[in-house]
Amino acid sequence: MSFVAQKKLTLFDYVNYSLLALISIVCLFPFIYVFSVSFTDPKVYIPLKFYLFPDKWSLSAYQYILSTNSFIHALKSTVFITVVGTILNLIVSFSFAYVLTKKTLPGRKILLGAVVFTLVFNAGILPSYLLIKQLGLLNSYWSLIWPTLTSAWSLLVIKSFLESHPPELEESARIDGCTEIGVFLRIIIPLSMPAIAAFMLFFAVSHWNTYFNALIYISDSKKWTLQVLIKSLVIDSDSTGVGQAGAGGDDRIVPQETIRMAAIMLAMAPILLVYPFLQKHFAKGVMLGSVKG
């Protein structure tokens, strides 16, 4: 019988763990405050008071903001951009990366060099804006999707992952009569599910948090994303229209702070709910392509 010797904790370990625990608790305070204020009854809410727990629980702020047209429009816009953008990201990234793994592809080095070139050089904000304008994509959801169909980092990581697959699998499929598309769909995609799950979460979080591009490309308030709406709520709330009466002619007065916190919680909730279930795929999906065996 063998026993695994346990490492004895030193003073440094205790101090290190204590500091990490303290920092973690401090980082949680803003989330606790946002959560508590969003569920605080407007009648007992006191500005500039720290709420560890609501003095009186209430859903008034959530009912109020969910009854406003501006939040519903922003939610629909964000969901559309996230769903469509993520699907297109996966299709373009994995198909392009698969092509780059083919050493017999004419012009492969040029394509690969162009991808690596974008890691170092960027056109900048002004040329990107002029390009979107010339393409007629301003005030369109596609202005937030087309420019981000893929990235050099994603392509290189996925390419490395695909190259780790045994080439004998593809050769066997071709002997059985599979075309290149058939090999990609029937062999490569099923073997790449861990990487697909990881990058699906990467892309979805990126699209859900779209802010800067939406700020410069979208001027129609009905097409704002959630992040732009929350920015308007927190910084220039007078111009959002969220403070107007809710549906059904409700004249209740809800403190602006509780509305802001409720909007922030609603924007964070989908990612917070999905992330724990897919988080394990982050390291697994990326690390599988880091070492060839």
From TrEMBL:
Superkingdom to which the source organism belongs: Bacteria
Chief location: membrane
Record's GO cellular component terms: plasma membrane
Domain ABC transmembrane type-1 span(s) in chain numbering: 75-277
Keywords from the UniProt entry: Cell membrane, Membrane, Transmembrane, Transmembrane helix, Transport
Locations listed in the record: Cell membrane
Family: Belongs to the binding-protein-dependent transport system permease family.
Database matches in PANTHER family: ABC TRANSPORTER PERMEASE PROTEIN MG189-RELATED-RELATED, POLYGALACTURONAN_RHAMNOGALACTURONAN TRANSPORT SYSTEM PERMEASE PROTEIN YTCP
Protein name stated in the entry: ABC transporter permease subunit
